[in-house]
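Z., the sequence and structure:
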Amino acid sequence: MPVAPVARGVLFDLDDTLFDHRGAADRGLRSWLGGLGLDGMLDDHVERWFALETYHHERFQRREISHVEQRRARIRAFLPGWDLADDATADDTFAGYLACYRAAWAAFADAAAALERALGAGLAVGILTNGDQTIQETKVRRTGLASAGVPVFASSSLSAAKPDPRAFHEACGRLGVAPQECVMVGDSLRHDVAGARGAGLTGVLVDRVGRYRPTDVAGVTRITSLAELSWAR
């Protein structure tokens, strides 16, 4: 049965929906920490890195700090004993992690086919992502997802970030579909599903690793793979 039989358009989240951000960040961070001689208590370091990433990236999405400033804040908080007061030193240190992260970039195995199926069903298809426009477009291009020719709507180029309704409405407007005719597919219950519903779209949750408890997603359409998506013509 199709997930959204009346859909005319679909928006996909990028990070951890089409693009394996968590996997790339985990692999990149472990490689970078090993090079710094900080591979002791590695799992603790990784979890702390992700907690800092979430906190400071949310500040960027709220326009409290710039994208560069959130990187500096993260690296300084992650390495408190290091002399990173100088912005150039902080940037150079973060660049070490960034190189390892980028080397590990990959799309999920089901991502390209999901885009092609939606396009083949005659839907207007876009990617709606919280992040920097240039960086997110580079991810799409470097992982082969750009071959589908799907537009990328990143929050840095919108008036707001998900879950703000304005982000969804602007993306729908650029696709040429009404919110009630559009589906948002993403891995975040708050940003993608609840945000989409609040903006009048249908939300579909991608929960690849069982992150959410059944009580968290009561009444939510949940899938574990993009291969489960199907569309009515």
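Residues 71 and 203 are 30 Å apart (CA to CA). The radius of gyration is 18 Å.

Let me know what you think.
H.
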